TrEMBL record:
Single Gene Ontology BP annotation: malate metabolic process
Domain Lactate/malate dehydrogenase C-terminal: 157-325
Keyword rRNA processing: no
Annotated EC: 1.1.1.37
Binding-site residues for NAD(+), renumbered to this chain: G12, A13, A14, G15, Q16, I17, G18, D43, N106, V130, A131, N132
Name used for this protein in its record: Malate dehydrogenase
Catalytic activity: (S)-malate + NAD(+) = oxaloacetate + NADH + H(+)
Tagged with keyword Oxidoreductase: yes
PROSITE patterns: MDH
Highest taxon of the lineage: Eukaryota
């Protein structure tokens, strides 16, 4: 029997990530090839005509799984009945801009959209915040949508996770699908800590630790980390716009694994509400290694954290605490 359609909200749908993301959702890349979807697309009035153009293209593409499209500038209409909300709308960082410069604009957007989601989304709606500063926007959304379970509010660090997999695969000249269990700790910013201490590669002789195969701690502890940390800025420098196709694809990976589960023995990175695991202060949206089962994520416990890693986990937590304070100062 055909499944009932799932309603998926994409805010900022007329923007660059939105334009890459909505066809992926309509093709079943986010929720599965047998899962019909109804797309809810929100943007702001100046983008209304462009949004309507995206809707026209969705119709023209005749996606078999796409059972309806709501394209609107009204947040209540956009949020009504949605099961999954991908929050891409916001003010993007441009070349030379610090992420903190865009904080105050995004805090007010996330405060008002939190209320619309809380009142009008379906029960148990899963929320993924993509727009920067992603962790702190998600935290603001959580604070102003108190009836949405905190486990349902997450932010995107899967792009950083995928970037780390990509760098290891290039360095070792192996398939990216054979690399697993990197970790992104902390903020989706240049203080994030891409950690390969528990990562491995599938080889004909079995799984081998990334550190053993790379055999260059100097590269792993410096250039690899900064390359992943700075990749977003490098894309902006090259394209003059922030990453879009990789962000959209990673947003699909994030929701797919959350809803459908992570493969046995594999974890992914998600920005989630911290509970004090790994001595990360509670009350932050912080990226952890997680596994997902039955639509729920759980932080992977018991991983050893060496001294270098400890410092890096604390540094990115410190930045998130400062962002949190700055966000709250924008509210008053
Ligand atoms: P974009 O400027 O092309 O699109 C943003 C869209 O949001 C625009 O269409 C704009 O009109 C819309 N918008 C603005 N305010 C809105 C509101 N209040 N409600 C609904 N829509 C609104 O930007 P983009 O390149 O698509 O990037 C979107 C965001 O994602 C940026 O904040 C960017 O920094 C961030 N980003 C995050 C990651 C990540 O990994 N977390 C990766 C790439 C980009
Ligand atoms: C990215 O990681 O590509 C983006 O978050 C960069 C940005 O600041 O928009």
């Amino acid at each position: 029997m055909a499944k009932d359609p799932v309603r998926v909200l994409v805010t900022g749908a007329a923007g660059q990530i939105g334009y890459a993301l909505v066809p992926m959702i309509a093709r079943g890349i986010m929720l599965g090839a047998d899962q019909p979807v109804i797309l809810h697309m929100l943007d702001i009035p100046p983008a209304a005509e462009a949004l309507n153009g995206v809707k026209m293209e969705l119709v023209d593409a005749a996606f078999p799984l796409l059972k309806g499209v709501v394209a609107t500038t009204d947040a209540v209409e956009a949020c009504t009945g949605v099961n999954v909300a991908v929050m891409v709308g916001g003010f993007p960082r441009k070349e030379g801009m610090e992420r903190k410069d865009v904080m105050s604009k995004n805090v007010s957007i996330y405060k008002s959209q939190a209320s619309a989601l809380e009142k009008h989304a379906a029960a148990n709606c899963k929320v993924l915040v993509v727009a920067n500063p992603a962790n702190t926007n998600a935290l603001i959304l959580k604070e102003f949508a108190p009836s949405i379970p905190e486990k349902n509010i997450t932010c995107l660090t899967r792009l950083d996770h995928n970037r780390a997999l990509g760098q290891i695969s290039e360095r070792l000249n192996v398939q990216v699908s054979d690399v697993k269990n990197v970790i992104i700790w902390g903020n989706h910013s240049s203080t994030q800590y891409p950690d390969v201490n528990h990562a491995s590669v599938k080889t004909p002789a079995g799984e081998k630790p990334v550190r053993e195969l790379v055999a260059d701690d100097e590269w792993l502890n410096s250039e690899f980390i900064t390359t992943v940390q700075q990749r977003g800025a490098a894309i902006i420098k090259a394209r003059k716009f922030s990453s879009a196709l990789s962000a959209a694809s990673s947003a699909c990976d994030h929701i797919r694994d959350w809803v459908l589960g992570t493969p046995e023995g594999t974890w992914v990175s998600m920005g989630v509400y911290s509970d004090g695991s790994y001595n990360v202060p509670s009350g932050l949206i912080y990226s952890f290694p997680v596994t997902c089962k039955n639509g729920e994520w759980s932080i992977v416990q018991g991983l050893s954290i060496d001294e270098l890693s400890r410092k890096k986990l604390d540094l990115t937590a410190q930045e998130l605490s400062e962002e949190k304070a700055l966000a709250y100062s924008c509210l008053s």
